[in-house]
Amino acid sequence: MGQKAIGQLLAHWDVMLEDIQVSPLSVYEDIEDTILSRALPGIAFSRVFHKEGGFFSSSRECMRVLSTRQ
After folding, report:
1. Is 59 within the bounds of a domain?
2. Terminal CA-to-CA distance of the chain, rounded, Å?
């Protein structure tokens, strides 16, 4: 199996969970803690904000997990 090119998108998915009573920020923190506990090299986290509609609409915060390995 060949190596993936740096910067190539490996996965992009989302799932709608109806009637969930948990903060997205706490889910992001749990995911980060789980990944960090595995001591994976070359992993970085960031948050991105996407507008839900037009210019004055609310923003949705999303977590991004990146590989920094070269």
Report:
1. yes
2. 17
pTM of the full predicted structure? Answer: 0.57
Q: Which residues contact 52 (CB under 8 A, 6 or more apart)?
A: 58, 59, 60
Say if 44 falls within a structural domain: yes
DSSP code at position 48: E
Residue 54 lies in a domain: yes
Cα 54 from Cα 42, distance rounded (Å) = 36
Please tell me whether residue 49 adopts helix, strand or coil conformation.
strand
Q: Alpha helices of 4-64 — where are they, by DSSP H?
A: 24-37
Tokens of 29: 């923190």
Does residue 1 register a pLDDT over 50? Answer: no
Task: Answer for the pair 52, 58: CB distance below 8 angstroms, yes or no.
Answer: yes
Compare 20 and 37 and report the one with higher pLDDT: 37
